[in-house]
Every structure is written in C-alpha cells, then in structure tokens.
Recover the amino acids of this structure.
C-alpha cells in the first residue's frame, strides 16, 4: 500500500492526513503536471485560461493609460503590450529556463496591486508624457531587486503550514469574488444601467450554463465548461445589445509592441521605492498562490519551486517594460480553473501563454476575447473564484482545527484579510505607501496568519502542546464543569 502523504501540523509534529481528492501520478509515468494532451484539448483548454484572465490583464493598462491621457490607439497598443508580456512571463513560469520558473500550470499577467501606486506616480509627474517612462524605470529596478531576493524570500515557505496556506487560499478566493460580482453588474460602474436586471440575468444564465455542463456532461466537454459557457453567454447577450463587436472591426491585423514606445525609462527614487513595495506584496501573493496550486495539482511547492516561481515573476516584471508592459505576477483566478477542470498540465497553460503572445502581435485576435461581455465573465467568475475558496477550505480541513490555537489563527486571519473587501475605506487615514499593503486582503491575511502561527504554535508551544484541544461542543443546558474539559491521560 502506498504511504499516505504527511503534513506538518502547527506544533511541529508530523501526522498522516488523508490524501487530497486528486489522482496521483501513474506508476512509472509522468506526473499530470508534466503530461501533454491531444492538440484539440490542448488548444481549447489553453484558450479557456486566457478567457478566464483576459479582463484582469487588460484592466490595469486601460486604467493607467486613461490617467496618462493616451489616445484610443495608444490605449490599444498599451493593452496589446500587456498581453504580449503576460505571454512571455507565462512561458517563463510554466516551461522554465535554468532555475527560473515554478514549472506549474501558472498564468502570469499584470498585477492589479500596482495600479494604485502607478496612478499616484502619474498624479505626481508634472509632464504626463514622462509618467509611463518613470513607471517603467521603477518596475525594471523593482524586478531586478526582486530577482536577486527570490532565493531568500523562498525560504519563508517553512512558515506556511496548512493552517496558514489554507487561510490564504481561502482569502484568495474570497478576495476575487467581488471582482466577479463587479463584472456581473456591467462594464461601467458610472453608467445608469450598472447592475441592471439585464446584466444580472446574463451573469446568472452564464453561471447556470456552466453548472449544467458540469453536471450533465462528461469528459472533454465537462472540462471546458467555462469556455463553452463564455461562448454561449456571449451569443445570448447579442439580442440584448450587450455584445459589442466594434473592437474586432476596428483592430489592426498585425501589430508589434515596439520597445520603449513611450520613451526611454526614467529612474525616480520615490517611484522606485513605491514599486519595490508593490514587488514585495506581489511576491507574498505569488508565494501563497504557488502553495495553493501545489496542493491542487498534488505537487506541493517546496523551497526550490517557490524560488523558481519568484524568479519567473520578477524577471518577467523586469523585462516587461522593454515592451511597454507592467509588473507581472501569478494570476489567482486561473488556479480556480485548474481546481475545477482538473486539467493540471503546465503545457496547457503554456499554450495559453502562446495565445497571449499572439494577441499581443495580432490585435484582431485580442479583440475576439474583448467581445465577451463583462456580465458573462462575471457569471463564469463566480464558479472560478469560488473554486479557489473551496480549495482553501479543503486545506483547512487537514490543518488540525481540533486545536484551539489553529481555530484562533484562522478566525483572526480571515477577519483581517476580509477587512479591505467589506470596508474598502478602513485604512483611509494611513499613508499611501502603507495602504499598498493594507488594501490587499491577501497580503494582510497572510502576514497575520504567519505571525499568529509563530506566536501560538512555535514560541513556547512545546509546554502547551497537550492543552490546546478544542473542548467538546456543548449541548443546550450543559453546565461548564471541570470534569467536562478534563482530558484523559494519553494512552501509551
């Protein structure tokens, strides 16, 4: 009989835990992460990954470009550049070169954590024409420093036992769900029809289509249920006038992100410090994402894997400004797609990276994904992002929640991480630099979980180890007595 996987509990012991509900690598064969699929499945599954993350990639360049005052043509160029550099970063992450890349099914793209500080840089730049070169210069420096720091940062993996990783994975899913809810309400929050019954109905129909396909189909169709749901949702939206085909009509057939199109990079100290802080936040989130994906694909991310993944993130970020792209990071929403479809091949995601590169070189191809209405993306996003949260809960089940200490760690960390979601203005009085970290629920929840785990389960934990069990649940009318909470002597 194969040995059961073992997991470090938070008191430092090792206890066997039930194997996760994922198939093991075949005896004498490749691990599913390293398998290749038939061409049609490879292409459609890769395209599904692109559809899941497209909106997240194009949103930051559109926001920053609009703040700079770019024309419609330059906005299209900036968006294409972001798609192109996301594809390059995805190649680094999935295929790997030397010790660069986690070689897991990770999609990389523009991190949203950098939007607020980039807007701050735009606001403080006198000549808006210099804003993008200043941003690009800061990203190059932050990426280079992050690349050098990756081996040391990866050593923090020992501070991420299941009680921490489960909490962070859950927070990733919960933090992404508001994005899906925003998409479901429409493309423009300032519009009168934002949140209209039409938009919400389209989101609900897309969600139902995905659920029906997952429930009543099998095999390949079941695995690409999200992609089919997006296509059907887009077609259903046509009679409602929600589907806009103008991006396809107006897009050029061929385009290349000319290096330093907006000018040579400029290096401003304040901007560099700001983007270095963003890089630290991004590396923290990427570490949590790698740990989450390692659990889902049944290939736990060790120190070397995390170091390689962080090198891919940071090198991708350093190279990105050369082609007019922004800071790159792992995309958490695609973790949900891997969890739901059980297609764990990193080569599928590499194909998705190929699609991203082609979209960056062919604006017409990029515009096809842009046709999908936001409400349709929102309906599919509920499934994708909810799957991430469910994976976190599965990890927490194995985290030893029979311990009072672990219950407290999870409870407080989740509360801290949910603050920016439920009360976005909670930290409004803090400096902008601090808000870069505090406004990321994933980062604050992760830091809280790591610190609480150290305090409760490592510092002086040995003397308390046998007294941390959660007391038995009380029935109505029970009295609290010494006898009820007393523990029998351990059997030997």
């Amino acid at each position: 009989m194969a040995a059961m996987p073992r997991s470090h509990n938070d008191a430092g012991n090792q206890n066997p835990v039930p194997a996760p509900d994922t198939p093991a690598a075949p005896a004498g064969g490749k691990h599913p992460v390293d398998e290749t699929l038939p061409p049609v499945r490879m292409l459609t599954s890769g395209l599904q990954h692109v559809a899941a993350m497209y909106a997240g990639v194009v949103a930051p360049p559109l926001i920053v470009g609009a703040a700079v005052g770019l024309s419609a043509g330059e906005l299209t160029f900036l968006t294409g550049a972001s798609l192109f550099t996301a594809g390059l970063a995805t190649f680094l992450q999935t295929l790997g070169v030397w010790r660069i890349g986690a070689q897991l099914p990770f999609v990389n793209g523009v991190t949203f954590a950098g939007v607020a500080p980039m807007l701050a840089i735009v606001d403080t730049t006198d000549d808006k024409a210099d804003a993008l070169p200043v941003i690009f210069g800061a990203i190059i420096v932050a990426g280079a420093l992050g690349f050098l720091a990756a081996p040391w940062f990866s050593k923090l993996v020992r501070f991420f036992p299941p009680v921490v990783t489960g909490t962070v994975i859950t927070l990733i899913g919960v933090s992404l769900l508001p994005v899906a809810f925003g998409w479901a309400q429409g493309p423009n929050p300032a519009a009168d029809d934002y949140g209209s019954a039409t938009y919400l109905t389209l989101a609900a129909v897309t969600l139902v289509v995905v659920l029906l396909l997952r429930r009543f189909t099998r095999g390949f169709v079941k695995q690409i249920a999200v992609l089919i749901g997006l296509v059907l949702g887009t077609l259903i939206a046509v009679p409602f006038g929600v589907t806009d085909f103008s991006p396809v009509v107006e897009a050029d057939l061929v385009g290349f992100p000319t290096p330093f199109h907006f000018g040579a990079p400029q290096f401003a100290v304040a901007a560099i410090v700001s983007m270095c802080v963003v890089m630290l936040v991004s590396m923290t989130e990427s570490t949590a994402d790698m740990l989450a994906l390692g659990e889902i694909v049944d290939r736990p991310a060790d120190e070397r894997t995390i170091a390689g993944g962080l090198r891919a993130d940071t090198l991708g970020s350093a190279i990105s400004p050369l082609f007019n792209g922004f800071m790159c990071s792992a995309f958490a929403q695609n973790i949900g797609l891997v969890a739901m479809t059980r297609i764990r091949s990193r080569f599928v995601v590499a194909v998705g990276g190929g699609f991203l590169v082609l979209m960056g070189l062919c604006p017409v191809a990029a515009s096809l994904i842009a046709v999908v209405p936001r409400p349709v993306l929102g309906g599919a996003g509920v499934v994708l992002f909810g799957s991430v949260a469910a994976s976190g809960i599965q990890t927490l089940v194995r985290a030893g929640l029979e311990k009072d200490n672990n219950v407290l760690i999870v409870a407080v960390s989740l509360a801290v991480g949910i603050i920016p979601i439920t009360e976005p203005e909670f930290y409004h009085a803090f400096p902008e630099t601090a808000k870069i970290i505090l406004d990321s629920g994933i980062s604050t929840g992760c830091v809280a979980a790591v610190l609480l785990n150290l305090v409760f389960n490592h510092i002086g934990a040995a003397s308390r180890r046998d007294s941390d069990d959660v007391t038995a649940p009380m029935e109505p009318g029970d009295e609290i007595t010494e006898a009820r909470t007393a523990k029998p002597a351990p059997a030997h």
User: Anything to note?
Assistant: The first strand starts at residue 6 and ends at 8. Residues 1-28, 470-492 have pLDDT under 50 and may be disordered.
